[in-house]
Amino acid sequence: MARQVDPNKIEKVKEAAIEMMIQYGYKGTSIASIAKKAGVSVGYLYRHYSGKEELIEELIESYLEETKRDFEDTIAKSESFYDLIYSFVKGLFELAKTDILKLKFIITLIFEYDFSTMNEKKKQEQCAMIEKMMEKKLDTENLNENTTVEDIMIVIFTIPLSFLADKIMQENYKELLTEKLARRIAHMCFRALT
């Protein structure tokens, strides 16, 4: 008889994996440490995942899918390239205020290069999102003629997330993440590409 899956335990496992990844990085996180933090046995984890790679990949897939949907919504609602960048930055600021753990995990995914095969998939997803934006022709003709999809991806993901990685270390970070600051970061990104 098959054992039933306890959704609460699986959720605790996912939360523990995220917390461990944020704190120790991919290489520093083990199935045993995830199991201990989640309060489950290592065997329980192996009944659901073949290893750390599968668990982390599932988390990445989930976050990529959600990020992709949010970005596509932002593209659809944006009337200019600047509006798109501003909406993206503002969305990241809101995420910092409402779900800091998720933002820290995204920052970890963007900046940790230890898991190269997953990193390549992440890069392909990001490029696909940027290409979708280019298809909408959000005044991208104002871009520098030498700007590539990869350049856009690097600028609109790296600048805001680097900034946030620094700001969220401060105790009063929520107060610092103002609309004026979101506009400044968006302007910085826009200027880097035009």
UniProtKB/TrEMBL annotation:
UniProt keyword DNA-binding, yes or no: yes
Domain HTH tetR-type: 7-67
GO MF term (any one): DNA binding
Residue range(s) of DNA binding per entry: 30-49
This protein's UniProt keywords: DNA-binding
Record-linked InterPro entries: Homeodomain-like_sf, HTH-type_Tx_Regulator, HTH_TetR
Name of the protein in question: HTH tetR-type domain-containing protein
Species: Peptoclostridium litorale DSM 5388
